[in-house]
Amino acid sequence: MSGNGKDFEPRIVGFLCNWCTYSAADTAGVSRMKQPPNVDVIRVMCTGRVDPTFVLKAFVEGADGVIVSGCHPPGDCHYNNGNFKTFRRMPLVEALLAQYGVDEGRFHWGWISGAEAPKWAKLVHDFTEQVRELGPLDWKQQLESKEE
Amino acid sequence: MATLTIDGVQVTAEEGQTILDVALENGIEIPTLCSHPLLEPYGACRLCVVEIIRRGWPRIETACTYPAWDGIEVNTKAPQVMEARKVILEMMLSRTPNVPIIQDLAREYGITEPPFPAEAPDEKCILCGLCVRTCHELVKADVLNYSAQGIERRVGPPFLEKTRQCIGCGACSIMCPTGAIEIVLEQEAVYQEKPLGPTSAVWVPSLQAIPRVPVIDKDSCIHFRQQDRSEGKIDDACMACQMLCEVDAINFEQEDEIIELDVGAIIVATGFEMWDATKLSQYSYGQSPNILTGLEFERLSNSAGITGGEIVTAEGKEPERVAIIHCVGSRDHNAHEYCSRFCCMYSLKQAHLVRDKTDASVYEFYMDMRAFGSGYEEFYERVQKEEGITMVRGRGASVEVLSNGKLRVKGDDADLGELVHVDVDMVLLSTAVEAPHDSSEVASMFGLSRKPDGFFAEAHPKLRPVETNTDGVFLAGSIQGPKDVPDTVGHAGAAASMALALLDKGEVVISPQVAIVDEKLCSACKTCISLCPYTAIAFVDEDNVARINEALCKGCGTCVAACPAGAITAQHFTTEQIMAQIEGLFRVPAEVEEGVKA
Amino acid sequence: MNTSKTQKHRADLLVSCVHDRAPDLIPALEAEVKRRGLEGEVKVVEAGCRGFCSMGPVLLIQPDGTFYVNVQPADVPEMVEETLVKGRVVERMTYQEPSSHACALYEDISFYSKQHRIVLRNCGMLNPASVEEYIAVGGYEAVGKALFDMTPEGVIEEVKKAGLRGRGGAGFAAARKWETGRKAEGDIKYVLANGDEGDPNCFMDRALMEADPHSILEGMIIGAYAMDAHQGYIYIPYEHTLSVKTMRNAIESARAYGLIGEDILGSGFDFEVEVRVGAHSFVGGESTALMHAIEGTVSEPRPKHIHTTEVGLWGKPTCLNNVKTWNLVPEIIGKGAEWFASIGTEKSTGTQVFSLAGKINNVGLAEVPMGTTIRELIFDVGGGIPNGREFKAIQIGGPSGGAVPASLLDMPMDYETLEEAGSMMGTGGVVVLDDRSCVIDVARYFLDFLKDQSCGKCSSCREGIRYMLEMLTNITEGKGKMSDLEVLERMGKSVKISSMCGLGKSVPNPVLSTLRHFRDEYVAHIEDHKCPAGVCKALIEHYINDQCNGCGLCLRKCPQDAITGEKKELHTIDAEKCIQCGVCFDVCRFDAVGVR
């Protein structure tokens, strides 16, 4: 599962909102846009549903990077203002991760609308390369060894 | 109601009618030059004199001013009346020998030559006063009036000088029966022809619309212009249309208003806008009046348009050569990448119209012909074979305005493999269509999303082409992408059906993805209450818990993420489910592990 | 007559026509009276017009009635010395009757003694600026009588019995107008006084407004009471500045006596009146044109199928009468209908003021009973034709009227008879023509006057004037054709029937009446290229016959130096240079200048 240098394939978890980024990702796929296979997508109805513990859980379970992406503020949110809640929560998650010693570059949150499939493809590509550069996080093994 | 006799025929008259009104209604002709149905009777030309016998007394009066009283006897052709008209016409013809309307009337009364030499043979004004009364009674600008008395009487503004009182409405010129008034436009004059705009103050903006309702153009309507100029003091100017409308359909009070309706479904149909062809300077749009967009050409060739349907250049001549350039702004990396879909067919139709109405040769610069509708390909074939239109396959590259006013169209003829050019008199640009400029406001108003090309996104490009991601909101027509008329009608019909289906059911099926509160866990902190964008969460005081209204909840899950007590669960997106998904991602399936071991 | 409350004078000097002719006369009189220390005994009064134009300025000394004519400031010292101090008449200042005897006394002058002055009763007899003087001669008594002793219907009945006809020209029965006005529905009604006199050579309305303004106001108050109107307007052309000033002053002084305003004389009847000033024109006196002018729009007539007594000024019932008509009302109310009806003829009661002009000795205003013959007016009152020339015709009624030939000299002048003769009473303008007057030239003159006095609204009137004038001008210049006469007749008849207002309908009258009575003169102009009266310059030639004794007067007066000749020798006229002005003819004392 893990490795160094160019052999290393990072594992990334993406929490995408159903209406914007998820549909952008869908379009990117349907449109056969080239993108690395490293991102595993978990669909939520709204990024407002993304509990900070989901991000921590992903890292705990073995993710090397996490993406949270939803609709552009101000007006794109299907639920009027769910993206604003994300906007307020995610900086806290960033601060929390920094305290745990997680590299800054392993967590990305932002906005991609349903019409921005190419942007999604680019994000996947760029973020995968970024995490690849950082190397494995390997929280899971560290935690397991501590337990032992 | 009055009963009177005109030329031995018994006729009836309404209160307020004059003898002239009644005579005209009954098909009895009386000559007149100074009366007009919109203006008060005046009695200046004296041609409508008739013999009237009232209570046994004969008298000569003008029919235009004399009330159609009960019991009177009117003789429109009494010998002395005919003689008086002849004498008046002799004198009028002598004063204005070259005015057609006077010549015609004089001929009717057997006058062949003016009996007196004219002082000013080019004089056109016959002093009927229609213009003065129009300016006073209708326009209420009081710019024109008579000056000097007696035989020196003339019509004009005060001191016969230019005046700012004149609003340039042109009503006097329209009313003038002899063309004596010419309207000269100066920079401040408002009256101007707009190529795509109103042809008069009352016009039908869309001739094909059903119902075909005319509207008043407030910018050129005398009534509204006078209201504006006088800051509301003159609120009864003109209203000629109202006086003439037999069914009382004209309402000057009507204004834009905001109507609030509670509805069960919304169909959004904003249509498209024409792309601004000045954005690609190589087509020189705007630099010559003979470079027209497709829509402008439609107006030009329309029989209700400014030339009455004649296809002429700005110089008023029939063009000898016309070039039509396809894909201006469409399928172009510098403008819109998409195909505007219906330009090919309207360009062919316009080529056909030019051939039909003029003898001009037509050159069509096209990249490839998209004639995919029913009967379209056949039409394409026909105009090529039967009408001799020169098809140039290759993008029209540029239009150059030559010093002699001609237009040089350059293009790449892909069939010949070389650059070609042709000098023409008129260029028609088949410009792209695009989403309306205010689409983003409309999108956020309805919570809709748009596609990269700016048009609105349907819920699914193949399976749900009229629905949107917002329940109850549907798209119709070009809002979703460029469409020709049949496609638009089909799309709109589908949207209407979807909306009707929704309304007809009388109840809505809501998604099961709603949040629920585990009341045993709820700590009554009320954090969730203010978070809900749908006010679906209410705090129940007697039970001291928050409770969610399932019909209002849309299932976004914001409250779930925020609940400090973990008391709220988003059904189908429960914390357990998501956690399990995360775990699942990183769990190597047993058979894979086994396989690795093996 | 003057009854100033504070001082009793021995003599009043009533001076007329000083306004234009001798503005220095009154200061000169006052200075001389003062120098002589006669201030307490003699009072100088600027009275209104006395109507004797050919003799003005005139001076009447009351109470003895001495009457002086052509009074100039230079005459003042002698007159004061002789008449006021010594009580002697200055012979050279008295009026010479054409029958050549001097008349020192006002009442002996035939011009006055043969008149019957009702309209002009106060003209020149009192100070128009003084309401007290008007009251002193019985003024405003009729208002009191009407307001307190008579009902409105009674007033109308009285006017009806008097047979009063409108003095504006058409002669419409005043009482009928008032009656319609009274019956017309409307909370607001107006009474108007027409002071826009348009005929050339006519000035009786002006004279009346300037000499006796209160009589007009009094009539209007009575008329307003009869019609239940509470607002009046007096329309005066702005050119008549003295009329405007006098009328406005009269309104204010009457108001001071409670004769105008609210609750007149405590009767409960309110009446306001205002002077409205407008631009002058002949057509401006037409009733609807006048109402347009008061309303502030272009002064042109409109159709009157519905009478202005029902829909008039600002759409309200309006009764318009000439100032002379209003002036007669107080007399009728005061002296009774029977008295008024006894004057004049059965259908045309009362008197008519004529304005005498042209070839007549006593130029001025003359008021005679209706039905007086032309001969009486011209020869008895008017003093006959100057220089003993032959009477040819009179043009009555101004441009709207027509010519009446000498053969009808004994015709009585009333509305109906004049109309039958192809003329009309009109406002009473009379132009006397003698054998040296060309009727065609007179008709041409009136059309030339009308060409810019018509409003120009109706094509028939406007173009009729244009082309009839063109034809008459051609005829007087010898360029006429015989077919013109037929065209003139056709055109005249058609214009007459097809024009809208009274002015338009009467435009052809001078042409039609002269064609009727003097067709031979037209023929002479056209066929023989001769003007029998010797007026039309293109058709005449002045020559000097052998009566000439070579006095040289004509030679000196000729503006073109066309006359040559040695002293005491026969003179000759150079036909090339002569412009046929006729000065030589007029100055020659030996009948040596002829016209052929």
Describe the model.
The complex is a heterotrimer of chains A (148), B (598) and C (596). With 148 residues, chain A is α/β, with parallel strands linked by helices. Chain A has helices at 21-30, 52-61, 82-100, 117-134, 139-147, and strands at 12-17, 39-44, 65-70, 107-111. In chain A, strands 2-1-3-4 form a 4-stranded parallel beta sheet, sandwiched between helices. The longest helix of chain A is centred in the middle third of the chain and has 19 residues, at 82-100. Chain B is an alpha/beta fold and 598 residues long. In chain B, α8 (294-301) packs parallel to α9 and α9 runs parallel beside α10 (376-387). In chain B, the strands form 9 sheets. Chain B has a 5-stranded mixed beta sheet with strand order 2-1-5-3-4, with helices on both faces. In chain B, strands 12-19-13-14-15 form a 5-stranded parallel beta sheet. In chain B, β6 (145-147) and β7 form a beta hairpin. Chain C has 596 residues and is α/β, with parallel strands linked by helices. In chain C, the strands form 6 sheets. A 5-stranded mixed beta sheet of chain C has the order 12-11-15-13-14. Chain C has a 4-stranded mixed beta sheet with strand order 2-1-3-4, with helices on one face. Chain C has a 4-stranded parallel beta sheet with strand order 9-8-7-10, sandwiched between helices. In chain C, α6 runs antiparallel to α7 (174-183), α8 runs parallel beside α10 and α16 (439-450) runs antiparallel to α17. The N and C termini of chain C lie far apart (56 Å). Chains in contact: A-B, B-C. At the B-C interface, β4 and α2 of B face α17 and α18 of C.
